[in-house]
Structure formats: structure tokens, C-alpha cells
């Protein structure tokens, strides 16, 4: 089945040392290509919001990125600042260090502190679970916790772990999440065939810096 890849793309640029001029180009590309959102570091949210004014393209940013082990209070502060700056969507890295230490109480407590802020401000939250470093059982447990919390999306990866998105992880998430919770695949999506396979498996968003190539049915050499 052929999908509208462009409409699923979160056009992403999260490299350390990136330039403001690159953010301008990212936003122009997103508008031209019909992408759903751009995803930029918190520093550039205001700039992206201004650049996209009058368009339908949303501004997403990252919270607790890329390792997820910052304090709950720090993630709350980041979330509030991003909302003030105009972010429409928050891609929040969960504390997978807590998961690896089997501290599911902490994991649940974290999301239960973040969700009231997100919902009160009518923003979208995507929780990044870093599926490539989790076991199937851990992914299923995440689905239970975040499904109960009412997040809008679960997202596979930051793109910084040793393994990014996989069809298996997306299928597992889709099987174990409530139907209304969407899935964003990210990390290593650099060719159209892989993008199609991820969407076949249940992904409705694609986080990638290769969006233009994917929308054209080509492969890319970018890293995210």
C-alpha cells in the first residue's frame, strides 16, 4: 500500500552546532513539501514559529533530549518554556535508565507530572521510548503505562541510540496501544521503502531529516 509519506513527515534537524539559517531552510522546505511539522531544538522554537506563521506546519521540539535521564522537574521546566515559546508538539524522551533499573513507579510518576501541563495547554505529546535498547516486554509495559496516561503518540527512537526505528517495534507498539494513540517512527529512516514498511506496520508520523528524499521515493545518506 502506498502512503502519503510527505504528510507524515516531521522534518527534523537536531544536530549540535546547527545554524539559525538551517532552521529557516528547514521551515521553507516543510512548507514547500507539505510536511506536517518541523522538529527543532528548544533554542529555535521561536524562530521556527515565526518562519511558519500563516502555514499549517506545526513546530515540534524535544524535551529531555537525547538521553532522557534529566529530573522530572527539569523536563517540566523545559516543557513549560517550549510552550511559552510556541511549540505545538513536545517530543519527550522518557527515562529509559529508570526502565532498565525496573523502576516503573518512576516512569509512571514522570508522565503523570507532565500530562496535566500538556493537556491544560492543548499541546501534543510524543513520548520517545528508545525501542532499540528495550526488550519486547519493556516496550509492552511502556505501552500499558503511556496508554493509560493518554499520550498522543509513542515514538520509537531519538536517533542517538545504537538502533533506531524497526518494523518489529512499530508492530509491537500498535498491537499493545489503544487505537487512538498514534505511533511516530524515527531513527535511521533514510529510504522510501523503509518508510512505507513502517507506515504499513502502523506508524502515522515519521521523524527524519531525509523527508525530501523519502517524499520523492529516493534514498538519503543523512544520519537521522
Automatic annotation (TrEMBL):
Coiled coil: none annotated. Its EC number is 4.1.2.4. Pathway: Carbohydrate degradation; 2-deoxy-D-ribose 1-phosphate degradation; D-glyceraldehyde 3-phosphate and acetaldehyde from 2-deoxy-alpha-D-ribose 1-phosphate: step 2/2. InterPro entries: Aldolase_TIM, DeoC, DeoC/FbaB/LacD_aldolase, DeoC_typeI. Keywords: Cytoplasm, Lyase, Schiff base. It holds the Pfam family DeoC. It catalyses: 2-deoxy-D-ribose 5-phosphate = D-glyceraldehyde 3-phosphate + acetaldehyde. Its main location: cytoplasm. GO terms for molecular function: deoxyribose-phosphate aldolase activity. GO terms for biological process: 2-deoxyribose 1-phosphate catabolic process; carbohydrate catabolic process; deoxyribonucleotide catabolic process. SUPFAM superfamilies: Aldolase. Catalyzes a reversible aldol reaction between acetaldehyde and D-glyceraldehyde 3-phosphate to generate 2-deoxy-D-ribose 5-phosphate. Belongs to the DeoC/FbaB aldolase family. DeoC type 1 subfamily. HAMAP family: DeoC_type1. PANTHER family: DEOXYRIBOSE-PHOSPHATE ALDOLASE. This is Deoxyribose-phosphate aldolase. It comes from Phnomibacter ginsenosidimutans. The gene is deoC.
